[in-house]
Amino acid sequence: MENAPIRNPSPEQPGPRPDWRDSLAQLLRRVADSGFRPPRLSGKRLAAVLLVLLAVWAVSRLLKGSVREIEPGFAGVAVNKLTGDLDVLPSGSAWRPRVLYDLHAVRVSDQLLSGPAGTFGVSTREGVTAQLTVQARWAIDRRRLLSQWAALPADPAHELVAPVLASAFRSAAPAYDIRQLISEKREELASTAARTARLRLAESGIVLKDVLIGDLTLPPEYERGRRAMVDEVQNAERMDVTLKLKAKEVEKTRLEADAQKARTEKDAEAAASRRLIEARAESEAMKFLLAQKEKEITQKKLEAEADKETRVQRAQADAQVARIQADAEAQRRRTLADAEAYSIRATSVAQFENLKREAELISANPLIVPKTFADRLSDKVQVILTPSIGGEAFTGEVFKRVINGEPPVATPSSVTASRSSATH
Questions:
Q1: ∠ CA 273-278-279, rounded to 5°
Q2: Which of 85, 210, 213, 309 could form a disulfide with 137 if both were Cys (CB 3.0 to 4.6 A apart)?
Q3: Burial of 381 (0-12, 13-18, 19+ CB in 10 A)
Q4: Would you state the CATH architecture of domain 111-218?
Q5: pTM value?
Q6: Sheet holding 74-80: strands in order across?
Q7: How far is CA 321 from CA 306, 312, 313, 327, 332, in A?
Q8: Distance, first Cα to last Cα, the chain
Q9: Cα–Cα distance between 359 and 374 in angstroms, integer?
Q10: For position 15, what pLDDT does the model report?
C-alpha cells in the first residue's frame, strides 16, 4: 500500500478557464440580439461604470478558488503567505484564499508499512543473520501536527518509521535463539521491538499501533542444516511414535480383553441380579396379591355379615311392623266390636225403653193399638174390632213377639198374610 505524501510542495494549480473576453463578447451579442439600446452616458459616468466593473472583476479573481476541499482521513495544514502562521484544518470544506494561503494535505488516518520497506536483516544470539518481514500500523498524531510539522520528513513511512523499526528489531533480536524465534518467541520479539520503536516514533509525532512479524527467512546453509536436523529429529520422533503406537496397541488389546472379561462378568452379575430382582418382585407381587385376596375375602365376609344383619334388621322391622299392624288391626276390631256392642246395647236399651213406653202407653190406653191398626188397614182390609184385650194379655203378647224376633206390633203385611191364611 503506497503512503500518501505528507505535504504538497506547490499550491493547487487551477484548471483551464474560459477567456473573459469571449464571455464579454457573448454577453454583448446577446444584448444586441435582444434589441436593448443602452442609454447614452457622459464621460464621467462611463469612467465610473468601468471602475466598478474593474473592481468587481478584481474581487471575483481574488475570491475565486478560495474554498478548499480536504478529503476524509486527511488534515489540512494552511500556511499564511504573509505571516508564516500554521493552522490545522479538519476534513471537509474550508475558506482559505489562494493568494493568502498555501494548503498542504496530510494523511492522519492509519497507514500500513509492509513489503520491501518492512524487510530487514537481524542477528540472533548464535550470530545467524535472519531476514524479517514485518507489518506495522501507524498514524501521524494530529494533536502534535503543528509542533512536529517542521521535523516531519516528506515520506515518514520510508524515511522514519521503517528505519526506527529496523533499529529496534536489530537491538532486540540478539537476546533470542534462532530456534526460539522459529518456534515460540516471535510474538515476544515483536512486542519488545514495538515498545522501543513506539517511544522513539512518539518523539517525532507518530503513533505506532501494531507490529507483527510476517516472514522469518533463514540463511540457505543454516536452512539446509536445520532441515537435515529436523529430518533426523522427525525420524527419531517417528520411530518413538511407532514404538509408542505398538505399545499402545498391545495395551489396547490387553485392555480390550480385560474390558471384555469385566463386561462378561458384569453382564452375568447383572443377569443374576435381574433374576433375583424379578424373583423378589414376583414374591412381593404374590404377597401383595395374597394380601389383596385376604382383604377381598374379609371384605366379602363383612359384606355378607352386613347383608345378613341388614336382612335380620329388615325382617325384625317387618315383623315389628306386622305386629304393630296386627295390634292396630286387633285394636281397630276391638274398638269396632266395642262400638258395635255399645251400639247394640244402646239400641237394645233404646228399643226396650221404647217398648216400655209403648207398653205403658198401651196399658194406659188399650184402644190405641186397634185404632192404629184400623187406621193403617182401613183402605185395604175391612177391620172388625173385637173386644179389647186386657192389659196383661197384650203385654204378654208383645213380649212373645219380641222374644221370637218379631215386631212387637203386627204390621199390615203380617196381618194380610195371617188373613189370607185364615181365608184358605
A1: 100
A2: 210
A3: middle
A4: 2-Layer Sandwich (3.30)
A5: 0.42
A6: 86-89, 74-80, 101-107
A7: 22, 14, 12, 10, 16
A8: 181
A9: 19
A10: 42
d(CA 183, CA 189): 12
Sequence-separated (6 or more) residues with CB below 8 Å from residue 216: 130, 131, 132, 133, 181, 182, 186
What proportions of the chain, in percent to the nearest 5, are helix, strand and coil?
A: 60, 15, 25
Task: Tell me, rounded to whole angstroms, the distance of Cα 216 from its chain centroid.
Answer: 56
The amino acid at residue 165 is L
With the C-alpha atoms ordered 395, 397, 403, 409, is the resulting torsion angle positive or negative?
negative
Report domain extents, the chain: 20-107, 111-218, 365-423
Cell of 60: 471575483
> DSSP code of 100?
T
Q: In whole angstroms, give the CA distance from residue 312 to residue 305.
A: 10
Quote the strand ranges of 108-258, DSSP E.
111-113, 119-123, 129-140, 206-217
Residue with grid cell 542444516, as numbered in its chain: 225
Using the structure block, give the residue that is written with the C-alpha cell 194406659.
364
